[in-house]
């Protein structure tokens, strides 16, 4: 039983933090996320050069053969910095789908190097975790249907698309610039990008064979746990910003830290952060050991989601008016945390999922 | 990071399970049902643990300590909870034993430690006073030197299980002219000494587990002072720091929650069982999740305390642990619902002999009793202040 990072993992964390803090302060985040792309190629290339983008890929696929702990470490840093680079959406998720469905696929090396951007086109109108209809269909080499919410689908070169052929859900690879693919890009409230993508007889190649739903479920679990690791970074910064503000902001001639009504709440925020961090480390470790399942994913989504609401709302409140302004970072973190909370299940959805199976075990246990 | 316990730790756990099985099943059943016979069951259980080296594992090796890793201590606590073995006697094993071993003269160590470990002496705590609760250092009980003795005058309160105790450890003011923390000393006092009176305080659950203790010209031999004169605050802080370790009671709450879940599954509603009711199931699922997050947090704190220093994060464990203990007792009372109204037979000697389960009759008294856990050992408001100061720098 051990929840400490190894020396190498600490080095990885420090390296990523170094790259990101050189680039991002709140002003740069705002400028970059106002650009058309919404993120920075320079940063992307730096992450590629130091091997971050390839971390989760096997060495045969041109990666570093690292695991979920390393990926989570990187995501926590991206979360801390509010860095908008689409590491999870454009690399980790499509990479995980492709390597599960079609091991050794040539596209994996291109994703690992950062040259090619992927995206997972899965969510359709009316979908709400844990239900996904997959009405998009595949027949005779082409795919038709509309995927409403494709995270970073705007900039993707290749799309991994879920589609139905008869009774079977499969994963298909589609060139994002192919004929029959039309994209409507959008901005998200947390200043990220996505696209609605309509396929109208677009040429598609099947990835692997057999029912792909189990692969999709597994990658959902990876995504949920990974996003929660990103949230931990954002939560850390919310608490740091809030405590720094309490120490420096003066009202009535004294710093806010002299008011117990504020400091008692700050201590609670620390508690919610550490509980969220514990659950995140638990889930990431389970993922690394191959024991992560939908229950563990729901556990981390519930805890991190609840902590995020409390810490996010309290951070803005305790800053007062400055917390409402776009030039101050705290609100941007809260927006990001809210987006994560609405992706692949809201905390209440996960609580309901856990409640449905609560009779399946006698006592709650770690392993 | 890894979730698995090492093979050595697993072997250790198995060994602990074997040793704990030596505590008689009936005694453990009484503990599980909240019906322990005081003080006999407590003494019997502690002596078996002591005989098997489990009562003083956290003491210095010279005095029965085991030099275990923090994880090993954690495993012992967890297995005790799972096997319904009563906790050790906090006043002896967690509080005064380690203080004597750390701070007192060799003579006092030899005189007291073995008896303390074996509960041949039952200790109680004389810290809080009517005017000194969270602000413990403002205590007023005085100890004045008179030849080979100190003469103690004053009043202590919230002395838990003092009615069974033989000795009391007391904080008293030995120098009124310095900063309040700097003028305090700790004394070991036999309760049969003339001038001591113990009066029970009935609590909101109807039971008596705490007492007031009055000291009137109580003469205590000077050699029964722990360490130097006016060094008592250091010892008190050491003791309170130890008290907070393990105060989260994750194992106990887990066992209690599992029991609540079983009972909810047996409780009929208009549409099925209480456990099948989505709202109630969500309440249990939510509490389970909270408990798991706390358990992992505890393991993180345990692992990072390996250098032996108290970790300020233990305040977090106390804060959250007490909340979850309270929520679980509240849950049990709510499962009992209307059956929680009867609480005893008409003569108040035991449960009412009616068609209402005994656990249900005990549920609200326990719920009321457990309001204490966010107050004792440093109230949760004090824990937050510790977090502010030691962790957040506020």
UniProtKB/TrEMBL annotation, chain A:
Residue span, Acyl-CoA dehydrogenase/oxidase N-terminal domain: 6-84
Claim: Transcription regulation is one of the keywords in the record: no
Signal peptide: none
Lineage top rank: taxon: Bacteria
Descriptive protein name: Acyl-CoA dehydrogenase
Keyword tags: FAD, Flavoprotein, Oxidoreductase
Acyl-CoA dehydrogenase/oxidase C-terminal domain sequence ranges: 225-337
Lineage, top ranks: Bacteria, Bacillati, Actinomycetota, Actinomycetes, Mycobacteriales
SUPFAM superfamilies with a match to the protein in the record: Acyl-CoA dehydrogenase C-terminal domain-like, Acyl-CoA dehydrogenase NM domain-like
Cofactor: FAD
Family: Belongs to the acyl-CoA dehydrogenase family.
InterPro entries cross-referenced by the UniProt entry: Acyl-CoA_Oxase/DH_mid-dom_sf, AcylCo_DH-like_C, AcylCo_DH/oxidase_C, AcylCoA_DH/ox_N, AcylCoA_DH/ox_N_sf, AcylCoA_DH/oxidase_NM_dom_sf
Record has Hydrolase as a keyword: no
Gene3D superfamilies: Acyl-CoA dehydrogenase/oxidase, N-terminal domain, Butyryl-CoA Dehydrogenase, subunit A, domain 2, Butyryl-CoA Dehydrogenase, subunit A, domain 3
């Amino acid at each position: 039983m051990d929840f400490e990072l190894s020396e190498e993992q600490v080095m990885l964390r420090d390296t990523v933090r170094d790259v990101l803090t050189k680039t991002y302060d709140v002003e740069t985040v705002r400028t970059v996320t106002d650009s058309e792309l919404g993120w920075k190629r320079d940063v992307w290339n730096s992450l590629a050069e130091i091997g971050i983008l390839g971390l989760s890929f096997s060495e045969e696929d041109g990666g570093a053969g690292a695991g979920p702990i390393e990926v989570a470490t990187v995501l926590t840093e991206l979360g801390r910095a509010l860095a908008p680079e689409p590491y999870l959406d454009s690399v980790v998720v499509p990479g995980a789908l492709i390597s599960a469905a079609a091991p050794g696929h040539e596209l994996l090396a291109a994703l690992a190097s950062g040259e090619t951007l992927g995206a997972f086109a899965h969510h359709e109108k009316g979908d709400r975790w844990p239900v996904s209809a997959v009405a998009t269909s595949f027949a005779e080499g082409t795919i038709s249907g509309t995927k409403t919410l494709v995270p970073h689908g705007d900039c993707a070169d290749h799309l991994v698309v879920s589609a139905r052929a008869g009774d079977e859900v499969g994963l298909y690879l589609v060139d994002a610039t192919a004929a029959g693919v039309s994209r409507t890009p959008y901005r998200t409230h947390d200043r990220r990008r996505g696209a609605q993508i309509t396929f109208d007889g677009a040429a598609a190649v099947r990835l692997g064979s057999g029912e792909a739903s189990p692969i999709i479920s597994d990658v959902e679990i990876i995504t949920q746990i990974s996003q929660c690791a990103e949230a931990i970074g954002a939560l850390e910064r919310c608490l740091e910003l809030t405590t720094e503000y309490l120490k420096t902001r003066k009202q009535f001639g004294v710093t806010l830290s002299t008011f117990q009504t504020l400091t008692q709440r700050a201590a609670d925020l620390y508690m919610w952060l550490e509980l969220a961090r514990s659950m995140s480390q638990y889930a990431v470790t389970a993922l690394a050991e191959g024991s992560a399942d939908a229950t563990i994913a729901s556990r981390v989504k519930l805890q991190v989601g609840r902590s995020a609401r409390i810490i996010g709302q309290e951070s803005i409140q305790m800053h007062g008016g400055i917390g409402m302004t776009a030039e101050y970072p705290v609100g941007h973190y809260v927006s990001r945390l809210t987006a994560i909370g609405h992706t692949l299940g809201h905390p209440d959805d996960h609580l309901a999922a856990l409640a449905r199976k609560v009779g399946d075990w006698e006592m709650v246990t770690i392993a | 990071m890894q979730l698995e316990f090492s093979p050595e730790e697993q072997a250790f756990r198995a060994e602990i399970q074997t040793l704990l099985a030596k505590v008689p099943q009936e005694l453990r059943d009484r503990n599980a049902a909240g019906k322990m016979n005081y003080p006999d069951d407590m003494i019997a259980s502690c002596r078996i643990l002591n005989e098997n080296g489990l009562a003083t594992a956290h003491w210095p090796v010279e005095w029965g300590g085991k030099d275990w890793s923090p994880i090993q201590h954690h495993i012992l606590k967890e297995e005790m909870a799972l096997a319904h073995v009563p906790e050790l006697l906090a006043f002896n094993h967690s509080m005064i034993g380690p203080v004597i071993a750390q701070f007192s003269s060799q003579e006092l160590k030899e005189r007291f430690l073995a008896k303390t470990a074996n509960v041949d002496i039952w200790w109680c705590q004389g810290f809080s006073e009517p005017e000194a609760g969270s602000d413990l250092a403002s205590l007023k009980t005085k100890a004045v030197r008179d030849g080979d003795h100190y003469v103690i005058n004053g009043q202590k309160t919230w002395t838990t299980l003092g009615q069974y105790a033989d000795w009391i450890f007391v904080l008293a003011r030995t120098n009124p002219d310095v900063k309040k923390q700097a003028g305090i000393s700790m004394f070991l006092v036999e309760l049969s000494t003339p001038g001591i009176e113990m009066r029970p305080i009935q609590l909101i659950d109807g039971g008596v587990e705490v007492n007031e203790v009055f000291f009137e010209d109580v003469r205590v031999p000077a050699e029964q002072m722990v360490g130097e004169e006016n060094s008592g605050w250091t010892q008190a802080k050491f003791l309170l720091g130890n008290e907070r370790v393990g105060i989260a009671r994750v194992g106990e709450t887990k066992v209690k929650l599992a029991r609540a879940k079983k009972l909810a599954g047996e409780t009929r509603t208009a549409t099925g069982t209480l456990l099948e009711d989505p709202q109630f199931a969500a309440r249990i699922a939510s509490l389970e999740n909270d408990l798991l997050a706390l358990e992992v947090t505890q393991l993180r704190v345990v692992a990072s305390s390996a250098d032996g220093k108290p970790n300020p994060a233990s305040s977090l464990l106390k804060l959250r642990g007490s909340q979850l203990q309270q929520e679980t007792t509240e849950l049990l009372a709510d499962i009992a619902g209307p059956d929680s109204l009867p609480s005893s037979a008409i003569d108040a000697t035991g449960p009412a002999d009616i068609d209402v389960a005994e656990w249900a009759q005990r549920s609200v008294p326990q719920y009321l009793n457990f309001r204490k856990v966010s107050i004792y050992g440093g109230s949760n408001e004090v824990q937050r202040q510790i977090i502010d100061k030691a962790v957040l720098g506020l």
